[in-house]
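Hello forum,

I keep getting stuck at the same step: I have a sequence, I want structure tokens, and every attempt I make locally crashes halfway through. Rather than fight my setup again tonight, could one of you with a working pipeline run this one for me? It's a single chain of 466 residues.
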Amino acid sequence: MNADRASVLWAAQAWLPDGWQQNVLLRMGRDGCWAEVTPGVVQPPAGALVIDSPLVPGLVNAHSHAFQRAFAGLAERRESESDDFWSWRERMYRVALRVNPAQLRAIAAQLYMELLQGGYTQVCEFNYLQHDTDGRPYADPLTLSWALADAADAAGIGLTLMPTLYERAGFAQSALRDDQRRFAMSAASVWAAASEIAASGRPRVSAGLVIHSLRAAAPASIKQLHDLAQGFAGPIHIHVAEQQAEVDDCLAATGARPIEWLVREGLLDARWQLVHATHSQRSEIDAVARSGAGVVICPSTEANLGDGLADLPGWLAAGVPITIGSDSHVTRDWREELRWLDYGQRLARRQRNVSAAPQSGQPSTAERLFGLATRSGAAAAGAPAWAPAWGLVVGARADALVADPQEPAILGVPNARWLDAMVFSSPVRPWRDVMVAGRWVIQGHRHQQTATIAQEFGQAMAELWA
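Reply #2:
Ran it on my machine without issues. Output:
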């Protein structure tokens, strides 16, 4: 690869919506989106950039808390009789109370570069870190949001930036705890922040809305944000049913389970993304399917926190859109997330290839999960604001990944099984080349800002953990 930007590509093998295709011509428009995707073009046209290794679309990372990258690997000791999500949260809050804007930018830039290396070209930032360390708003209330946007720009990744409604510590509490003081946002301030982000004109940055969880937002505030968002085309994300304790508390407070409550209140539509949705019932899954909403599963974080296993077969059978996220960023590669998405089910059910569907012509677990995550990415990221689809299709943003032809996982593997091997023959190398909006941000495993970003990240970590 010798061009930062090339308008015509020719790939001997590329992953299109109907699977692997040979001799694929891809032409991008001036808007950074695919203008033509044509398989079966036997010879590359003059001037085309020839791709000599598998070409696949980049994925949307549909759930990220960037500041938690500074905490990855630092909560893996148990100093008391028990350790669970709630004790992990107490330790995580200590990091959240210390990070300043410069540190957040450094941490997020390192994370976003790593996500690119792991095959994500868009990240949905579920941003609840809003205020100064004393809980007072910055002079510019979006100071920390702009730090994240600056980090995404430095790395070259696409960003869906989503301010978060967060106003109470639990169903039975009317206010936040002191160690949650940096998170406070009302429905009106969330709407104002999202509107300002959407109007900022920053390249590759779009806006979404977030409700942290039902325990963290009063029903009246959720309804207010829902009303403000009438006509809003972007995504609406919410943590839901991640922990069994949350389900029990919601039942006690409202008479309904969390997903059941969202359905009962008539809130869900195709903009909504239910993050985790770990503890669900079949009736809830069917209701979500009817609403058009999607789910975001984060296997590595859910395993790390001991959340439990989502009913993946149930969500798949109902045809609910499914995307993945790396959440707390204990891992940062979609191949590992997809691997553990099925491995968790294999362990629980003592079966293999649980996610495959040979009865519908989808015998490959990796191909089914990857295809679903690709198709569902547009709605999770709010892509219709700038492109109608995701993947190597006309109209989608020109994002792409190129594997290393010497990658041991695919070396000697038949072309038709490349994706199987990429996901289930681990470990794998970072992607050799990564394109975002028609621009190569990684070439030959090299990101131009690696040294600078790594140095600033190391300094931020030293300051936080000295």
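The chain has a mean pLDDT of 96. If your local run keeps crashing, start a new thread with the error log.
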